[in-house]
Amino acid sequence: MSVTLPQQQMQRLGVRRLLVFSGDALWCEQQAIQFCAQSAGDWLWLSDSAPDDVNACSPSAAHTLLGQDIFHGVFDARHSLNVEALAAFSGALKAGSWLILLVPEWSVWADTPDADSLRWSEQPQAIPTPRFIRRFQCLLEQDRSVTVWRQNQPFELAPLPVAADWLPPDGQPTAEQSQILQQLMQAQSGVWVLTAPRGRGKSTLAGMLIRRWPGSCCVTAPAKASASQILNQPAESAHFFAPDALLALCREGAVTGADWLIIDEAAAIPAPMLSELVAAFPRVLLTTTVQGYEGTGRGFLLKFCASLPQWHDLRLNAPIRWSFADTLEPFISDLLLFDEHLPVAEQTDGTSEIVPVNAGDWLSEPALLQDFYGLLTSAHYRTSPLDLRRLLDAPGMTFSASRMHNTLTGALWLVDEGGLSAELAQDVWAGRRRPRGNLVAQSLAAHAGFPEAAVLRSRRVSRIAVHPAFRRRGIARDLLAEQQQRAQQAGLDFLSVSFGYTSDLASLWQQAGFRLVRISMQKEASSGCYAAMAILPLSAAGQALAESAESQLNRDWRWLAPLMDLVLPLNSPAGTQPDDADWRELNGFAFAHRPLESSLPALNRLLLHSALPLTALRAYLQQGQSVAKIVTALKLSGRKALLTRWRQETQQALKDAGTAE
Q1: Rounded to an integer, what distance in angstroms lies between the CA atom of residue 302 and that of residue 380?
Q2: What's the predicted TM-score (pTM) here?
């Protein structure tokens, strides 16, 4: 291949371009190598099977590229299309860059198994993703700035769009940056939140603040590489700390005298950690990307910032790393529905009607996909490109929506779960197997001790959202009631939901007929809440499961409550005598691989009714000694050896009670 590349023109206009090679794997690789040889640049390959002697990075490590300036790149999607990596990679390419995309042969691409589906489809093998790929192909064919070269067809480079010459940044703050810098330099206290799409100079602005501020600043970020643009600014007063290290110093009172805390890519840091860090400094600047490749961008504003008592909303709109005429950014935005989109509420008077949605509708009605996904994004803390792929192509999905006139007012997304064989469900309970998927069904089997939950057929509420202009009209309740009826007609045993526990959310699900059956002992990193699970029984078997799990949670709460900073409206029964469920649980811990956390209540009841010494168990559960102290006292090699000792002591107690199986 030999073509005249419009390289100088691309740099003069400040644009980046997408070029697609579609064919067999070897042909695509050869064309990319030849094309790269015609123009100097970084030519970073994002690939798990890159050719020898090229600069390569795995797609799974694409997040390390954020904040970097890369000149030209090759994205390998011949076997696996990681769209988060594609988005992050495109955001790191600077003006004048080519993005070369390698894809399978055009006519079979949509039917070719995509290895990336193993991350999100909950299937044991890779599956084809026809709806996402056909939509991708359609956008590629419609975009006049994109060139697609198919094997055995002629190559013709698409012309560049007509645009004015671009003035690249000269290191001085832009008009937008200057205005924001002025506000920050005058700040006496408070939290300032700077959001923008990629390439707008958020990190550069933070670096300018550090350089101009007369005092000292602390900087943190999910990874030091992502804060490189900030740290590149020549300022002796800036000190970088990893988030966990900084939090430890704050708790010790060791961080004093810092005027600013600057947190880059704040949306990727767990909310509880973020809250504690923010409270420790007089002035805080949080920067994050609204197009959240980490899946938290817009939700960060909706959830975390809304929880702050007072914060200042700062925005950067004008691109700096490329010009307004850039063709790559709008293409990626259209492909992954990055633009904030909420259905226009043309008329708010009337009644919403529920309409079924089939997966095939996403391609035939692109506006429906945009509205549905826009509603979900507007209502949830974490919505990522993986959700879009799952929405389009994962099997076992059920959708419904509510509409008033021409406005989508509500969206509901459910996922099929359960249906495991009794043998596999027992292995899940015993801790020997953990097949993909089945979030609630497996959790009730593996952690709550109910293997039948994984055998029964259920449907989990994955996402539910109501248009802000139509809330408090019973739309969510109506959507759930309609799905309850459909699930009963399909012979399912229960509906389920998993959510970050708050009393308000628990009340809402209870009003919809769901019954609380499990609370995790660990807080979710994103929400800072304990994960709660609730089910709505639909059959006699589902009803029996709900009653047993509800009763078990009430009985166990006496032992769980002291370990969690959570108050639940539960009444623990007074009795502490181990029952049949406890003996099953204890046998699972002693002779299988049931986790200690799941067995804690049963173990506590065992200790109350056993006369044996059970030294290691009593030290941990009754005396509250640390793992390290017990390991030292018993001369064990570590926690793993202590866990073995706990299991052995439980075996002794079961044999003594005559209940060992």
Answers
A1: 8
A2: 0.89
